[in-house]
Amino acid sequence: MKILVTGGAGFIGSAVCRHLINDTDHSVVNLDKLTYAASLGSVASIEADPRYRFVQGDILDRAFVADLLKAEQPDAIMHLAAESHVDRSIDGPGDFIQTNIVGTYELLEAARTYWSGLTGEKKSGFRFHHISTDEVYGDLPLDDSLFTEETPYAPSSPYSASKAASDHLVMAWHHTYHMPVVLSNCSNNYGPYHFPEKLIPLMILNGLEGKKLPVYGRGENVRDWLYVDDHARALALVATTGEAGRSYNIGGRNERSNLAVVETICDTLDRLAPMPDGSSRRDLISFVTDRPGHDLRYAIDATRIEIELGWQAEETFETGLEKTIRWYLDNRDWWQPIREGRYSGERLGAAVKG
Which end of the chain is more exposed for a tag (fewer CB within 10 A), N or C? Predict the structure, then answer.
């Protein structure tokens, strides 16, 4: 299959591109705008492969996307292009509305025109795969409840609201226009090539540099952690074998509180790269004012994708985190220019005016 991946220079998108090229027979067209969180360094290992092509462009430009679809004739679209950081959505929600909602609409319409012109097996086999988040479901109490594919949507941040809206658009295009779409909602991802504004890479790099490790509130918020390469395998399965009109929750079954995550990072860093004075990085943990509207807990029930598509996460949180930390230790040339240029670790989304 030829697969068009939007946002393929981002964190999850680049993992998808690397998986499709390295571990499957598919070919990839990577469409990315190259915003602040994107990096062509994340796909440098596959850029010379004849089955891979990068195209810089914006999903908001429907005519451009339509021409690209006509020229490339993909068998599937995997839509990952999105603004994704909750803290940034608090500071500037407009970009999230434009990219995540309007951008998805423009892409859907370009894809619908393209799909409508297909015939035979090319048309019946086509899939539009929209990649979303568990944050659309709102939050859960500190118990054993889980998000399922039937959980009602209750987004609480500008980011999650924009993703919920895009999810509804995708499913509406299926029900109204019979467009063959599949949808997936994932839990928190972590792993190599993660832009260091998110919790795990920020804590790793601050810890390496001996800086404070800011934890929101008391660190009690719980997330289900999913190693990005496990997620990439799941997404490829959904895009190529998922049932049209169906959604799939993807989670790692690795729930941890934010404080427990940071403490594990500290302990792993102390073992792999001890502080020069022998001190514990746990001493760097600092509790800071919580994020406005911070959801308490997310947890995914991944039973559907496990049973129907035969996928399971291979990494535990501990094995995946050690792989992640070792990657950051070995790849300073990827993250140091980001820390020195685009993002140095400053607090985002701290205050709400009103």
Answer: C
